[in-house]
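Our preliminary data section would be incomplete without showing what the modeling component actually yields. Below, a chain of 235 amino acids is followed by its predicted structure, encoded as tokens that our downstream tools consume directly.
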Amino acid sequence: EAGAGGAPGGGGATASGGAPTTTTPGLEGAWNFEDVGVTTTKDQSGHGHHGVLAGSGVGIVNGGKVGSAASFSGGDGRVSITSNASLDFTSAATIELWVKLSSTTAGAIVARRGAGGDGVRIGTSQGNVQVSFTRLGIGSAIVTSDPGALSSGWTHLAVVNDGSTLKLYIDGKLHRTEVGGQLGYVNGDLLVGKSGTDSALNGYVDELKWWSVARTPQEICGDAAGAWNNGECTL
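Predicted structure:
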């Protein structure tokens, strides 16, 4: 099963409600979506960025990659995490998650964007993965996967932007590299499953992690439940 290499909290003590009292360096948010039957999902990073389920067609259901998962049925339902400066990507970024599609229709998977369009978005259309980091009036760093990269099974996605290079990993393996950058302040909430006027995701998200550092290929491999051998990730 998924990603012991990215487990948050460093094994420290927990506060009431299950949120860890210790933090992992660089891990700004971690949502495991284990909160079945409630409308708030805990941030397990220790930073308190708890999410709220809003709209229709969203829930926490059994059958996730690990335990339960956030479910989206293509309505306007989303998980909303209030904007906070600690969620900004200033010098580097890594976003990791497990995703499973119910349909290959277009949809937003994860996004954090301001009113002017600054920010980051991960979306899908026809089963591909589309990633963009945008600074209004400056430009965008964009990487897009091959068609059909996502399916009805669980897929681990990792996006790493170190300020100069943008990398997309699929199931622990480097899939594509483009020019990176376009990091900075964002005045916008972090949204899962639906963002602004984007179409909503029709599928599931689990084990979302939001890092302010560039994770290494070895770390990405471990989070995808792979083993790093001779410079390659094997599952």
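Residues 1-19 have pLDDT under 50 and may be disordered. The two ends are 11 Å apart (CA to CA). Preliminary results of this kind motivate Aim 1 of the renewal.
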